[in-house]
Amino acid sequence: MTTEMQEIAITEDKPLLTGQADSSKQDAELAARILLDQGQEHSIETPHGVLHVTLHGTRNSRRPAILTFHDVGLDNKSCFLPLFKFEEMQEIVKNFTLIHIDAPGQEDGAAVYPVGYQYPSMETIAEMIPAVLQFFNFRTVIGVGVGAGAYILSKFTLANPDSVEGLVLVNIDTNSRGWMDWAAQKLSSVTSSLTEQILSHLFSQEELSSNTDLVQSHRERISKAPHLLNIELFWKTYNSRRDLTLDRSCTFKCPVMLVVGDQAPYEDAAVECNSKLDPTTTSFLKMADAGGLPQLTQPAKLTEAFKYFIQGMGYMASSCMTRLSRSRTTSLSSSYSMDGSRSRSRTLSQGSQGGQMPPSPSQTMEVSC
Cα Rg for the chain, rounded, in angstroms? Predict the structure, then answer.
């Protein structure tokens, strides 16, 4: 018997459409963009407890990450979201990974600590940061801290100088509370609610008197926070901080940019900190009409200053300087010191060749914008 072989043509009932593969790829890319935009949230174990950390961007460890730490009464979103969502900031964001750290128990939705909980000290919180860098496999960072976060990043930088390539400190106060401050705080705790105490820390008296929309929104957010007890613990810890030991012989090893509003509660403290730092590696930016939170009220000016700062470290050399460079003669009030004595700060527009300092470090500039 002869067996005949028949050729059978098999066709797909539902053949792939020409654009289907492209559509799937686009959907995947969109999902990835949404994920990066919203941030990847992590709970990271450290030797002193768990930290809530949000990462934006890819883990490109060839460059330092930008690591942020917020102030009391804020979390990473309320403190930094308007700044890093700002249109002109996107040129920086797309080139660096962002790591936002929330202080213990300060993130939105955090569980409330039990009564009597021993909140970590400012020094202990600073000691938790190396575990974050190790988790994401970053060797170095550029730190951006506000208020209490500026103090914490300063402690971290002093203890880990090789881990920090640059430091941006907004509303820094390097001093502990004196007896007069302690007495005033005690009186304030009797006459004012916790929310009002924190608002006085965050905003200028002019902003509080005007009861601006920003003040109102933060008053409502803090007063209605389910984890208000956690916020109070962080507030008390910040008020119990110790002096940061800083002088010209014991200072930061990296470039530093100090930022403060011209009527901010910590304007004098920032000026005093500036006097303790090396003028050849320090930039001082005092911002007009910025109030207590310049990263929220003046994101354009701070973004441009941040670009200059990063360029001075040798990154983004081809970045286009727009706003500040156009308005240098109209909106910047500059004072130069050529003798090197009592130099307040150096120019924000350093050369960007390999992160080297300008050839004439005694030429300095205090910027008010």
Answer: 24
